[in-house]
Amino acid sequence: MHKDKWIEKLELMPHPEGGYYKETFKSNQTLSDNNAIYTSIYFLLEKHNISHFHRIESDEVWYYHAGQSLTVHMIHPDGQYEKVKVGPNVETGDVLQAIVPKGTIFASTVEGENDYALVGCMCAPGFQFEKFELFTQAELIKLYPQHEDIIRKYAFEVIH
């Protein structure tokens, strides 16, 4: 199916970090701070509409659904860079599901020939926009100068 059909059929809307999303599940059970135990979304990225570097206070599990492989770029709190490809090509190194540990700064991209990737993302504890941090290139380069090239590719120059 074409990406525009996915966006229409799943009723996806633009996400501030890039791409499109829709919350599909939110646990009725809450933690002591009234946050849901988990939340889950559909998330669609286009080749030229990437998910820019950001951080959340939850573990986030990614699940491949359709389209091209999606590359998750992670800068762990200790400064280590890691990249994981979530997609259908397990014979060449893709995984069908992957985790971004809480507190990790991450971005994601579609780098193949197809123009989109559709994944699901589940956060535990549940995702909250109030605890969502977007980063500028300058902020990240100051923290992780060894990753300047990747930061310049996948972080906003300025946040609008």
TrEMBL record:
Every DUF985 domain range: 5-134
SUPFAM superfamilies associated with the record: RmlC-like cupins
Cross-referenced CDD domains: cupin_YML079wp
Pfam families per UniProt: Cupin_5
Any coiled-coil regions, as ranges: none
Highest taxon listed in the record's lineage: Bacteria
Gene3D superfamilies in alphabetical order: Jelly Rolls
Record InterPro entries: Cupin_DUF985 (IPR009327), RmlC-like_jellyroll (IPR014710), RmlC_Cupin_sf (IPR011051), YML079W-like (IPR039935)
Designated name of the protein: Cupin superfamily protein
Source species: Mammaliicoccus stepanovicii
UniProt lineage: Bacteria, Bacillati, Bacillota, Bacilli, Bacillales
